[in-house]
Write a structure and sequence with these properties.
Radius of gyration: 21 Å
Strand content: under 5%
CATH architecture: Up-down Bundle
Largest sheet: none
Number of strands: 0
Shape: globular
CATH class: Mainly Alpha
Number of helices: 20
């Protein structure tokens, strides 16, 4: 059995870390969730509010996670234990590990669908999204395939696995998006989509708009489950944490904004409703692609883009739990990744079967949603928010201010100029703002029930 320090590794370069961390944040939430949420909230006004939330909420929490990780050189559980030995704060780390494997379980299901839609588009299959997801002979192998791809990357370690592939996948993602955006904005009628996306109409802004923007900013940055604590633990003491957090947040936000720039011009060009909801990508876009010259190639490229975005996120989800097994249980990395993948596959089976294959799983008694929907609500919304609240409180109120500040300033002496603002946001604004999101999540659940 290898000891943890020998098997955990370190980033080979700052650029490699930024691309890997950006890949963790960038996923289906940016390209799938952001456009339909923007469409449901009126377009440009929502976009502006979302950008403010990224700056005031996302960046401070990311700084906190990266700092905790680099200081401790441990996984989420070990990080809290190292800073506050013998305290109950390690429970927050356990919540992060649990959340990571559970999100990986159902995320791999929808990620597998993106791979399936590449071949579905090329084959000109007319099967609906509902019919596709109701076929267990498609859903289960696709989920297994995506988990296997994730394992192949993560088992290579930090430099040879995650960093190496992030340097390939992230530029590929950007290239594909640029090519699709160029095609989208040159469609006849695309101007109406650009106006919707960039010309604010503040008369449509409501309290829900602010809450949706806050939630999207938080969830899209992969905060609250320890992914950035884990990635931060591989940082060199020479790296600038503040600048790194800004770069990761910038790339994550850029991809989300580009996704809107890709989708809204095409939607309006085809005369479709921008508020189509969660089915926007898998139900509406194939119709649009079918109407375009070269639509098969464009559609296949788009779903390849989605698959790449999903893979960069599943890599970080698998790494959170793998790092815990390597650090705390002294399990070899190659063995650890397969253990976590097997658990995620077992947990993911009910999610895969709940999208139409098994009726009881599609509508859980007393809950009113599918097993997949329940997992997404509980772990993709609630548990991430709970984790972020505790991380903000830990950094702002529990951890010695001198120690945390010294950690950030190591590699960035100029941090002292903005330290008071970041500390204030983490002590007060972030816990309150995320708490409001949690309150409305529970309120909506009660109302729906």
């Amino acid at each position: 059995m290898a000891t943890a320090p020998c098997d955990r590794g370190e980033w080979g370069s700052r650029a490699g870390f930024i691309l890997a961390a950006a890949g963790s944040a960038i996923g289906l939430g940016n390209i799938w969730r952001f456009p339909y949420t923007t469409g449901q909230n009126g377009g440009a006004a929502f976009l502006l509010i979302y950008l403010v939330c990224v700056i005031l909420l996302g960046v401070p929490v990311m700084i906190a996670e990266l700092t905790i990780g680099r200081h401790s050189r441990r996984n989420p559980v070990g990080a809290f234990e190292a800073i506050r030995p013998g305290s109950r704060w390690r429970i927050v780390g356990f919540l992060g590990v649990l959340t990571g494997v559970c999100i990986l379980s159902y995320y791999s299901v929808i990620a597998g669908v993106t791979v399936g839609y590449i071949f579905k588009t090329v084959a000109h299959s007319g099967a609906s999204y509902a019919a596709f997801t109701a076929n267990p002979l498609l859903m289960i192998p696709l989920m297994l395939l995506f988990l296997a791809l994730t394992v192949l990357v993560v088992q290579g370690g930090v430099r040879n696995g995650i960093e190496r592939w992030s340097k390939i996948l992230m530029p590929l993602l950007m290239l594909l998006m640029v090519l699709l955006i160029v095609r989208s904005v040159t469609l006849e009628g695309a101007g109406r989509g650009l106006s919707f996306y960039f010309k604010p109409d503040f008369s449509k802004v409501t309290g829900k708009t602010f809450l949706d923007a806050l939630g999207q900013a938080f969830f899209s940055l992969s905060l609250g489950m320890g992914a950035m604590i884990t990635y931060g633990s591989y940082l060199s003491k020479k790296d600038d944490i503040g600048t790194s957090a800004l770069c990761v947040s910038f790339f994550d936000t850029l991809i989300a904004v580009m996704a809107g720039l890709l989708i809204f011009p095409a939607l309006f060009a085809a005369g479709m409703d921008p508020a189509a909801g969660p089915g926007l990508v898998f139900e509406v876009l194939p119709v649009i692609f079918a109407r375009l010259p070269g639509g098969t190639l464009i559609g296949a490229a788009f779903f390849l883009l989605l698959a790449v975005a999903a893979l960069t996120s599943t890599i970080s989800l698998l790494e959170v739990v793998t790092a815990w097994l390597v650090d705390e249980k002294s399990i070899l990395r190659r063995r650890a990744v397969w253990i976590v993948a097997a658990i995620a596959f077992a947990f993911g089976l009910p999610s895969a079967l709940s999208l139409g294959a098994v009726e009881r799983l599609g509508d859980l008694p007393g809950i009113g949603m599918s097993f997949f929907g329940f997992m997404d609500w509980l772990f993709g919304n609630v548990m991430l928010a709970v984790g972020a609240v505790f991380i903000s409180i830990f950094f702002g109120w529990v951890w010695d201010r001198r120690a945390s500040r010294a950690e950030i300033e190591q590699g960035c002496p100029s941090y002292r100029k903005c330290a008071p603002a970041v500390t204030y946001l983490l002590k007060f604004f972030c816990p309150i703002a995320i708490g409001i999101v949690l309150f409305f999540l529970f309120r909506d659940l009660v109302a729906a029930g």
